[in-house]
Amino acid sequence: MKYILYALAGLMVFVSCGEGQGQKANEPGALVMETTPKGVLESENKKIAIYDFDGLSELLERKDEKVYVVNFWATWCKPCVEELPFFEKLNDKYAGKNVEVVLVSLDFPSRAEELLLSFVEKKNIKSDVLLLDDPKQNTWIPKVDPKWSGAIPATLIFNKDRKVFYEKSFNFDELETELLSFIN
């Protein structure tokens, strides 16, 4: 578990999350969390914070002016990988418009440095990516949504007034339509 060594630097890394990509922590696309991550996967171009569900719940409970699009996915999930470009397009199109796209990877933590980090770099993913490292799925899955079977891809879209969970794949038009129902 090489990433454990990064745990102490985690909060500092997360505050400067987009630094290598020309972003500051308070700009769109640079997710800032108060909870210290369990660790950080880091390369020259990308930083991926690692959270257990308690840490991730800070994001899922936000009640601010933004609309959050949180996608649960994994590199080994073909439908997840197929829909990632639609989340990236949504992230680009709504940058600076109080929309935050967060990709929560459910990849195996023991292989995350090898597979997830290289995948995110190779695909040049700009959306915020977090790794959820919490083996107690039976506990946290119903906290995301009581009807979630645990299958991925799955997406949660929410703002301070409303929260809707989708256990399905999206194309771009479907995803944008759902987002617009939160904006309009």
Protein architecture, described:
There is one protein chain. This protein is of the alpha/beta class. It has one domain (2-183): 3-Layer(aba) Sandwich (Glutaredoxin), CATH 3.40.30.10. The protein is built from six helices and seven strands; from the N terminus they run αββαβαβαβαββα. A seven-stranded mixed β-sheet has the order 1-2-5-4-3-6-7. The chain is globular and about 40 Å long.
Helix content bin: 25-40%
Q: What's the alpha carbon Rg, rounded to whole Å?
A: 15 Å
| CATH architecture designation | 3-Layer(aba) Sandwich
Question: Could you list the spans in which at least 5 consecutive residues all have pLDDT below 50?
Answer: 1-29
Estimate nothing, just give the exact number of structural domains: 1
In N-to-C order, the SSE pattern is HEEHEHEHEHEEH
> Counting H and I runs of at least 4 residues, what is the number of helices?
6
Per CATH, the class reads Alpha Beta
Terminal-residue CA separation: 44 Å
How would you sum up the major sheet?
7 strands, mixed
Taken as a percent bin, the fraction of beta residues is: 15-25%
Q: Give, in spatial order, the strands making up the sheet with the most strands.
A: 1-2-5-4-3-6-7
Instruction: Specify the structural class.
Output: alpha/beta
Molecular shape: globular
Helices and strands in order:
Layout lengths: L9 H6 L23 E4 L4 E5 L1 H8 L6 E7 L4 H16 L5 E7 L3 H14 L5 E5 L4 H8 L9 E5 L4 E4 L5 H12 L1
Parallel strand pairs: 2-5, 3-4, 4-5
Antiparallel strand pairs: 1-2, 3-6, 6-7
